[in-house]
Amino acid sequence: MRLDHETVGLYAETLVRQAAASNLLLDYSQASLGTLDGLLAGSDEHYALLPDAQRELVIFYAGCYVGEVIVRTLDGLWQFAPAWHESTVVVPRASGGVEVRPFEKLSRRLAEGESSNRLTEYLQGILELLQELPV
Predict the structure, then answer these.
(1) Which of 42, 57, 101, 111 is the most buried (most CB within 10 A)?
(2) Mean pLDDT computed over 115-122
(3) CA 24 to each of CA 32, 79, 98: distance values in angstroms, whole numbers, following the listed order
(4) What is the pLDDT of residues 54-111, one digit of tens each?
(5) 88 — phi, psi (to 5°)?
(6) What pLDDT sits at residue 135?
(7) Residue 92's closest CA among 80, 105, 72, 75?
(8) Which domain of life is it from (predicted)?
(9) CB 37 within 8 A of CB 119
(10) Ranges of H-type helices in the chain
């Protein structure tokens, strides 16, 4: 899968459409990460049974969405790596900013479950880090 400035939003939108088919709203807001948390939590036990390729697809599409939420709500910038799972989002500040790894977070979320990996708490942690940095 090719991940770049042209495709990342399209991949995120694929997840938005899949959620809409289940009457779930993913609107790129910070609050929508709670909806995604709920969607993922409903299948926590299922992910452990998925073949690696299918689990990677979940990580890919959900990671694109989480990254796009950060880009759109916190003025982040995608930094694409040759291997998509190493791509990051940087939220720039005068001091350099905060680098966020959405695919890594989703990988941990699927491997370890929701208890210590809620996406809403992840975003809250990013916001707290940003408050400590000079704008």
Answers:
(1) 101
(2) 87
(3) 9, 29, 30
(4) 999 999 999 999 999 999 999 999 999 999 999 999 999 877 889 999 999 999 988 8
(5) -130, 170
(6) 67
(7) 75
(8) Bacteria
(9) yes
(10) 8-21, 32-41, 44-49, 52-74, 102-112, 119-131
Q: Are strands 88-91 and 77-79 parallel, antiparallel or unpaired?
A: antiparallel
Angle at 36 between CA 70 and CA 5, to 5 degrees: 40
Q: Which residue has the tokens 């880009």?
A: 71
| Nearest Cα residue to 133 out of 79, 78, 92 | 92
The rounded radius of gyration (Å) of the Cα atoms in the chain is 14
Judge whether residue 30 has pLDDT over 90: yes
Domains of the chain, residue spans: 8-130
Output the pTM of the full model.
0.93
* Res 44 pLDDT > 70: no
Give the integer Cα–Cα distance in Å for 36 and 105. Answer: 13
